[in-house]
Amino acid sequence: MSDLLSRRLTLLGQPANLSLLGQCLHGIERECLRVDSQGQLALTPHPQALGAALTHPQITTDYSESLLEFITPTETDPAQTLADLERIHRFAVSQLDGEYLWSPSMPCPLPDEATIPIARYGDSHIGKLKYVYRKGLALRYGKTMQCIAGIHYNFSLPEALWQVLQAAEGDSSSARDYQSARYIALIRNFRRYSWLLMYLFGASPALDSSFMRGRPHQLQSLDADTLYLPYATSLRMSDLGYQSEAQAGLTPCYNDLVSYTDSLRQAVGTPYAPYVAMGTKKDGEWLQLNSNILQIENEYYSNIRPKRVTYSGERPIQALMARGVQYVEVRCLDINPFLPLGIDLSEARFLDAFLLFCALQDSPPLGGDECHACTDNFLSVVKEGRLPGLQLQRDGQAIGLQAWADELLEQIASLADLLDRSQDAGYHRQALDAQRAKVADPALTPSAQVLAQLQAGERFRDFALRQSQAHADYFRSQPLSAEQQAAFEAAAAQSLRDQADMEAEEQGDFDSFAAAYQASILALAT
Predict the structure, then answer these.
(1) What CA–CA distance (Å, rounded) separates 373 from 245?
(2) What is the CATH number of the domain that holds 214?
(3) Which residues form the Glutamate--cysteine ligase domain (predicted)?
């Protein structure tokens, strides 16, 4: 353990500071496709009983009209976060008529690209902007890639904890700048070590063959309808996912917040020749918001993002530049198809210890060579993480995945113990021990368990539908209370009224609104 980490652990372990660890905040966003009873993509509109996707705070859509997204409130206890998520699932399942929530990250058999429905958000300017943005994604990357689902884990440390560390370290910067710098340092360490999460929690070693749509690939055939790699952990996070020549040259620097926001701001304002050739409109119809490297900053695909809650009408970069980093959003987690929620409490508790380790461990700036090694390690693990003897790169030297994983888990154990002390319980150590078992025996990983099911003779699409149906049965077996059900129904009705009000109050034309939206980021000072 480094001296800095040791000092920080000692400081936070003092009685006056220990309770701060119980004030960390957690939130989860879970995406999932709606499918019909045959396991085909549901082509029905977003169910009105779920409310308006534009204005409902907890139930919305992501890329496709068929791709639901459930958003929890933030809670100090991840058990409560998961309870919130479960209630959302129970309500949604109760409103789906003959449809299911698809259980894994990789999509069901998809119709042709033209048939996949883009999410619609009504006739307000912001609703149209969200739709045109998605049209641009379809134009740039194809619709198939946009139907992949995942889990986003949002995590923050209390401001008071950062202030304790800053005072102890004699840092003279503003509280906001110190906190932002520490979150950016967390992100650098996340880049160094996130391959471990893909080994432990990756759950997409296989996919339906229709996903490739005749594109060249190096996958092997498990059966006529299933493609896989024998040692893969997360094909979702491999280079089968988003292929973007435009973004290939975009490497936001995580060495400070200013360079990160500058690189994204410039990408949103820099034309990209192939997109310029496509144009923004055809026959008066919008094709994409603009012809720049990124239409908006959220188009940049990353495994983790620094975030700040935005004000109404404010853009993410504007919020970060104005008020600094408030939390991080972990975006690389697969949906575990064996779990009704796609994630469980053991995973959440390990993530807390892992992220706390990333926040408190030394985190020197990332140089070019280390940056490349981080990317290479991550891609190696998602494609062959269970390969016996797999070697990764650390400090320019080869090291076995298993040896490095054991070292990391030994260091993270100190954070798990600190969290357990703060809560007078042993849950985090138990979660960590479950991960140690996976390192010792790759057969215990979700990716190996999925593959074992498929290798027993079940197609990916049949396995996924069977799990989807089992999860639906689970949620229906324990319906919401009458009071909870009524609250969800009221929230859905309110969201529909809110959208109608927005549309009724809209002023001006959409073209002017879109131009002002684009100008809002170009006007930001570098």
Answers:
(1) 20
(2) 3.30.590.20
(3) 10-380
Inter-CA distances, 387 with 121, 206, 220, 265, 382, Å: 45, 15, 15, 40, 11
d(CA 348, CA 77): 10
Q: Report how far residue 388's alpha carbon sits from residue 429's, in angstroms, rounded to the nearest whole number.
A: 27
For 116-258, strand residue ranges (E) read 151-156, 206-208, 220-223, 226-228
Q: Give CA–CA dist 185/256, Å, rounded.
A: 8
- Best CA proximity match to 325, nearest among 156, 457, 204: 156
Contact 294, 271 (CB under 8 A): no
Instruction: Report helix, strand or coil for 227.
Output: strand
The number of folded domains in the chain is 1
Instruction: Give exposure, 245-284, as e/b (b: 16+ Cβ within 10 Å).
Output: ebbeebebbbbebeebbbebbbbbbeebeebeeeebeeee
**CB of 153 within 8 A of CB of 329?**
yes
CB neighbourhood size of 343 (10 A): 23
Domain that holds residue 118: 3-522
Those residues whose C-beta lies under 8 Å from the C-beta of residue 59, and which sit 6 or more positions away, are 50, 51, 53, 68, 69, 70, 71, 88, 91, 92, 492
Which positions ≥6 away from 415 have C-beta within 8 Å? 9, 353, 354, 356, 357, 360, 428
Kindly report, residue by residue over 132-159, the tens digit of the pLDDT. Answer: 999 999 999 999 999 999 999 999 999 9
List pLDDT tens digits, range 478-513. Answer: 999 999 999 999 999 999 999 999 999 999 999 999
pTM of the model: 0.97
